[in-house]
Amino acid sequence: MQFDCIASAAFGLEGVAAKELRDIGFDSVKAENGGARFQADEIGVMRANLWLGTADRVLIVLGEFPARSFDELFEGVRALPWERFISPRGRILVKGKCVRSMLMSVRDCQSITKKAIVERLRDKLNVRVLPEDAEEYSLEVAVVKDVARLTLDTSGAALNKRGYRVLNGEAAIRETLARALLTLSPWRLSEPLYDPCCGSGTFLIEAAMMKSGKAPGLERGFAVTSWKGFDARAMELLREEARDRFKPELACDIAGSDINPEALSYCATHFKKAGFSGIKVEKCDLRELKIEENSGCFICNPPYGERLSDIKTAEKLYAEMGKLLGRTPGWSMGVIATDPLFERCFGRRAKSRRRLYNGRLECEFMCF
Question: Most exposed of 17, 138, 290, 295 (fewest Cβ within 10 Å)?
Fold first, then answer.
């Protein structure tokens, strides 16, 4: 069976997720607000969950229909084939949102959706009671401009939860955003990569995964493998294939430093969890950093001022980053920052920029 799917992605990264889907092997991919649409069968849904590194979740679109009244919403939901996915003991969780529609009560839309699904399942599965004490099914009813869209979340925990990050340093960047910024940066897999403010090591691990061919979801589970109609054994075969492709020895020329020894201890834990022993980090003040390689790329998520309540200190750091690039000819740099004066402090204008969000903070990713 072919499904209409969405790889949901953060604002500004929809095109990155679309390109990643094409690289994985999906056809007819189209970026849209909030993600990228694609078609996939059962195996494809599992493959997308396993290999997507920049998307937040993989959703199956079960239906889209006009919903200008609660009756329309109920009948539209009830007409969808829920019995193909949900078992008689499945636990149904309904999320919701309403935007510029006649139906603007999220709670009522959630309640009506759940009621319609339960009635459909009772009828089609020929049961009187749905215990809801087994596997979980998370779905969303989104009513936007009087059109309802029903989606099932196949991922479970968000896809940034790779399994390696068990300790969080100050202002850690999300794994999916780190992967996207590496994709957007001047870095190429054949080049060295260095993070001079490496924190707990997210950029370094994501880069190592990219160089070594490690599937982002290799060490975690997905909700879809417990669903009716989806073969858990097929997922294991996909994992076996992914393990064969993982070559940790290829994750070379990746290194970083930080002035905070606690952050470096977090790095050691995360590198081990992620399966990488060759990533080198050291305690070093950025002002004293010396690079031996003639070319490569710096990637950095420096302290923002807003997060540390010390804008002046952050801006001095930005100036030192500019000096670092100036004394390493042949190197490029990608930086995510919130300060509109970043370039002035850095000492040069960016060659490219992209507006996006790090959590709730509006940022720019600039390449030099």
Answer: 290
Q: Give the closest residue to 198 by CA, choosing from 284, 252, 265, 258.
A: 258
- Please give the DSSP secondary-structure letter assigned to residue 287: G
Q: Which among 158, 200, 204, 159 is positioned nearest to 181, based on CA atoms?
A: 204
Q: How far is CA 101 from the centre of its chain?
A: 29
* Residue 233 backbone dihedrals phi, psi, to 5 degrees: -65, -35
Across the 368 residues of the chain, what is the mean pLDDT of every consecutive 10-residue run?
A: 96 97 97 97 98 98 98 98 94 97 98 98 94 95 98 98 88 93 98 97 98 98 92 96 97 96 96 96 96 96 71 91 97 96 96 94 96
Instruction: Record the tokens describing residue 29, joined without a space.
Output: 């991919």
* 35, β-bridge pairs: 8, 32
Give the count of alpha carbons within 13 A of 351, CB side only: 8
| Tokens 């996207």 belong to residue | 180
If you search the block for the tokens 């919130």, which residue do you land on?
A: 338
Print burial letters for 320-350: b (CB count within 10 Å at least 16), e (below 16): bbbebbeebeebbbbbbbbbeebbebbeeeb
* CA 111, 113, 118, 120 torsion-angle sign: positive
* Fold classified for 175-215+244-367: Rossmann fold (3.40.50)
* From-to residues of CATH 3.30.2130.30 in the chain: 3-153
The per-residue DSSP string of 338-352 comes to --TTHHHHHTS--SE
- State residue 2's pLDDT score: 94
Instruction: Read off the pLDDT of residues 39-78 as tens digits, 9 standing for 90 and up.
Output: 999 999 999 999 999 999 999 999 999 999 999 999 999 9
Task: CATH 3.40.50.150 in the chain: give the residue spans.
Answer: 175-215+244-367
| CATH, range 3-153 | 3.30.2130.30
Helices (H), 154-277: 175-184, 202-212, 232-245, 261-274
Nearest to 302, CA basis, from 313, 290, 314: 314
Q: Which residues contact 304 (CB under 8 A, 6 or more apart)?
A: 171, 314, 337, 338, 339, 361
Q: Report d(CA 323, CA 336) in Å as an integer.
A: 17
